[in-house]
């Protein structure tokens, strides 16, 4: 999950839960990650928020358009990159 967040945060400052799920679906087969549900990804992100790696905010998109969960990086991009490097080596 950290790898997915790293790739997204390299391009933009704020990502949504839906973007995380879509990106995970794209890279999971290449990296050998297991299939996980939307709920599981949300649970993992909540855990990363507990550890202080990310923060999130639920934002309404207007009447009848639902809500979105915006995710912000609380650690530096370099710290996240080092964490990914340690995991994959």
Write structural notes for this entry.
The protein has 89 residues and is of the alpha+beta class. It has one domain (2-88): Orthogonal Bundle (Arc Repressor Mutant, subunit A). Helices cover 56% and strands 19% of the residues. A hairpin with a 6-residue loop joins strand 2 and strand 3. Helix 1 (2-11) runs antiparallel to helix 4 (77-88). 10% of the residues are buried.
Question: How do the helices and strands line up, and which of them pair or pack?
Answer:
Blueprint: H1 2-11, E1 14-16, H2 17-31, H3 38-50, E2 54-60, E3 67-73, H4 77-88
Antiparallel strand pairs: 1-3, 2-3
Helix pairs in contact: 1-4
Question: Which terms summarize this structure?
Answer:
Arc Repressor Mutant, subunit A, 4 helices, alpha+beta, globular, single chain, 89 residues
